[in-house]
Specification:
Length: about 325
């Protein structure tokens, strides 16, 4: 063979920890008990939840539509990899992660990927029984609601207690962030519960209904929201105290056109958000928790209202 030209070759070096499938997950998709035992946390709450919740409570409680936006997918991937490498070394400062939606998105992803849902099937059915026995518009039974969590293992109980405490605090700022307990339940109900908590029909009975699976899924989704809303209404009611860091002026005023949000509320790499003009009563607090007679039409209307109001109030400057 005679050389008749130059052959150019290009090689790409991929680090082993970045290769898909090469590294076992250490945080996401890991059982809570195993994760807490490895991290050796005193509070029995995973470091990811501790750090995300603390940072959100520090600078995100007054952000309109908190927990509704996902943030940059690329930045979320970067933060996710950082937690997988070493949760203890992760710093969620405003300089490193100015978009609070990245942090809320990572928290929801972690909860969604748990092998066992944080609200277990046992707790789910216990809460449904408590809701059925509660008299209409009865006074909140805080002591009974706290007792409901006793059916959980210690790690799950500590983690869910911390998360519900945080979500109750977020709901207490609904005048600013427009996320009352009902809207939070819509966001977190499907995250904290799986889609198969409800008992299913037999195969023969299922075949007799063309859309039985779709209907059952819709009913499950609605009941998941009802269960979380009930817990948020009952637990820590009247005991949520705003942190000292949130005692200043609101991020946005309650009336009139809203000024441009600060950099901490804009997605990195995306178009800036110029103006908010949401009405003061964007999401009024409901008179009471979801009732057992709430039909699917009411439920669908609630979802559509939430999506429409949060979407139409943002003017994007190109």
């Amino acid at each position: 063979l005679q050389p008749r030209g130059v052959l150019y070759s290009k090689f790409t070096l991929v680090e082993q920890w970045d290769s898909p499938g090469e590294r076992e997950p250490c945080v996401f998709g890991v059982e809570l008990g195993q994760l807490v035992e490895r991290e050796k946390t005193v509070t029995k709450v995973p470091l990811l939840i501790q750090k995300c919740v603390a940072e959100i409570e520090k600078r995100g409680l007054k952000v309109v539509g908190l927990y509704r936006l996902c943030g940059s997918a690329a930045v979320k991937k970067e933060l996710r990899d950082a937690f997988e490498r070493d949760s203890a070394a992760v710093t969620l400062s405003e300089q490193l992660y100015p978009d609070i939606n990245v942090i809320t998105g990572i928290l929801k992803d972690f909860l969604r990927e748990l092998p066992t849902p944080l609200i277990t099937p046992t707790l789910y059915h216990v809460v449904l029984e408590a809701m059925a026995k509660r008299p209409p518009r009865g006074p909140p039974g805080e002591r009974d609601a706290v007792t409901l969590l006793d059916c959980l293992p210690s790690v799950e109980k500590a983690t869910l207690t911390r998360l519900l405490d945080h979500l109750s605090l977020v709901a207490s700022f609904h005048d600013f962030n427009r996320m009352n307990s009902q809207n939070i339940a819509v966001c977190f109900g499907p995250v904290l519960l799986t889609q198969n908590q409800e008992p299913r029909r037999s195969a023969a009975a299922t075949r007799s209904y063309a859309h039985s699976e779709d209907i059952a899924s819709a009913v499950d989704f609605k009941r998941h929201i009802e269960v979380l809303h009930y817990l948020l209404q009952q637990l820590f009611q009247g005991s949520v105290t705003p942190p000292h860091c949130c005692s200043g002026p609101p991020l946005f005023p309650l009336a009139g056109p809203y000024p441009c949000p600060p950099p901490s509320n804009s997605s990195p790499g995306g178009p800036p958000i110029c103006c908010w003009s949401a009405p003061p009563q964007l999401f009024p607090e409901p008179e009471g928790p979801f009732g057992p007679r709430l039909n699917l039409k009411d439920f669908d209307a609630l979802i559509l209202d939430l999506e429409r109001e949060l979407a139409k109030q943002i003017n994007v400057c190109l």
